[in-house]
Amino acid sequence: MTVSQEKSPNPSAYNGLKVVEIGSLCAAEYAGRLLAEMGAEVIKVEPVEGAASRRVGPFAAGAGDGGHGLHFWYYNGDKRSVTLDIAAPDGRAALDGLIAEADVLICSLQPVELAAAGLAYADLIARHPRLIVAAITPFGLTGPWKDYRSSDLVSLAAGGPLHMCGYDDHAIPPIRPGGNQADHTGTAFAHIGILLALLQRRKTGRGQIVDLSTHEALAVTVELGNPYWFYPRAIVLRQTCRHAQPVRTQPALFECADGYVYFTLVITEQKPWQLMVEWLLSHDLASGLDDPAYLDAGYRQAHFTEIQQVVEVLFLLNTAEQMYREGQGRGLPIGKLNAPEDVFDDPHLRARGFFVQVDHPGQGPVEYPGPAYRFSAFSAVDPKPAPELGEANVDYGLGQSA
Amino acid sequence: MTAPYPDLARSPRAHPRRGQGPLAGVRVVDFCWVGVGACATRALSDFGAEVIKIEDRARVDMTRRLPLYKGEPARAYGQEDVNPDVNRGGVFNNYNRNKLSCTINMRSPKGRALIDQLIAKSSVVTENFAPGVMERWGLVYERLCELCPDVIFGRMSGYGHSGPDADFRSYGPIIQAVSGLSFISGLPNMPPSGWGLSYMDNQAAYFNSAALMMAILNRTVTGRGCEIDVSAVEVGIKLLGPMLLEVAANGRRTRDEVFPIGNRLEYPTAAPHGVYPLAEEDRWVAIAVLEEAEWDALKTLMGRPAWAEAGHFHDMAQRRLHQDELDRLVAEWTRGLDHRTVTDRLQAAGVRGALVQTAEDLNEFDPQLAERGLFFELDHPVIGPARFEGSPMLFSDMEQVNWRSGPLLGEDTRFVLTDILGLEDDAVTALEEEGVI
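Predict the joint structure of the above. Result:
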């Protein structure tokens, strides 16, 4: 493999790309971050009191909420920060100056907020024909819901994924999958939309408006949910930590001595069955499943509950990490449910050099995940921490630093 | 059989608008199959790339076999047909519209020679096999560069193509487990509820789409191709968000806590924040109160009940402290609400809230998606008219060209061999008879 670890000396993919970013919606900030990570010069335009995202927890230990928000760090690394009052005439003139130099404007203001700020994308495009405006909003710039207000949970609800997540017991409500995934789904498509517009501009010389709706991004991120409606007209039912399906299926979460693994016990096919029996035998836990009668798939199906119980014992007596490695070693798809702190200790990720050190002045080095893709022709930039408020004011001719 | 276009209207020749758009002129030899790969190259085929799926008649794409059929009762996706019609599968159709299908027997030296010729006439090669398959065929990056000097080779896998676990087997739920996304989702003191879908099949696909487009953009500037290595586990970890920095910067250990906390929010402070029952059984509404003004708006909508004015619900900190009681009382109110009107009622009052929508709601009742035209329809010779998931963004200066539904198995083999590789029709027939295609 040629790609994985070595850093290419070539400029990153977005080298030379200038981006102006307005708004503090996480989906938009993360899109800016993905561009910055691969070499774009991303200027975050903040109000003088700082973007609202600076005041969102969690915060670095002992730092209070005075500017060391880990939320802000995560979504704003590698960017520059300027402070502008875009409602005031001189602030607005300064913003226009930045936009005139930009290839991409990322903005998360919803239509009613855009109108209040006096920003009209059609005018911007007319004045700057090469400009790409990436409007990243909860519902898009048009339609009856364009100014509806949202949050990660509300977006996951409206968009469809939430309906599919939760427990077998439907007295329990659907449960939000963690980690700002509504925003992250919007980000992923915003990135694709910006790339398509950049590629189109190479052909036409013209920029355009990319109107990304997080709601729509989620509505197409339900995997089998839509096809089950498109084809057999079925609505899937949520199940504990496994696929929502139109009918109930067997559990896939197995409790171990110290946690859980995800594993689908396949009894209909011969090979995975034999691998499972060999695995049980290696722990002296086959409990009769090596009896030749079980070589018959029909017999296995008739005795599924007993089989399930034997397998449960294997897992309960061992750690999740051990079961994960042993199962994978035997060629069975099985995954340990890692906690966030576990992934930092994973030898595979360490061997691939996935984590990168980001030096935070006054805080010391902090490990971040590196880029999610590796290219033999170019690499991510050397990571820089999220900017202090207004640190780039002077560099961009905006007077004193805040 | 390699059908020579029983339906001429479906031939790539009949679609002049095919191949327009930002990726016009990009031909992709696409070995991808199943979910991630097909979903990743869908973004390319939707915007002008000529994506040629290389398929194997002896080892048919799993999504062609999943039993999601129109006009039949629903089955779990694991309940496969013993002898499925490979052209009827709905999941395949959804992921592979606007692509071509070319069947090649990669076990045959002649088949491999055809692939070499095709790669020489293309500029992107994509795959998401288990590590080792492309190597077995000799299709490593260095070889691809010999065939096509500025080639982009997109490799999508669970764990990436280096490191001790590179050979581990995975699919969506495994990636979600190993990356941490499952563990962080669930109620306290319960097993994790994780994900009810292969979220990572979709997300890894999106990051792969972006990676391919970045490489293509870079090539238009520098003239250089490249090899791309994307690990779905690494994408998944990247999606964990700021919680990772709580571990890295603050030493947080979630295993030592009562964690996760269900639908409540750690950050920012929010209460009420949850999913509440509606009048109809198993219908739910999500409500997120992030600011005091929103609590006031919710109280007004609820008719300003006496309980809501009580001191222990007075501010965010108080409400957060008394969330069990608060959630119970909010749920008593939502139980009287109708699922068809709840979203509009909450939003009109200034409350962040929405019905927990099903696929039926998205497709048949959501006025926002309808107005923006997210879903679209295409006919299919075996399936008939079917709906498709569109792209979640509108562009002011281009549009997605939907020229055809998912290809029949090998539907375009003859087109690829004659129109692209320049073979005579007779030669194609001979290859067919020899079992090469």
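Residues 132 and 417 of chain B are 27 Å apart (CA to CA).
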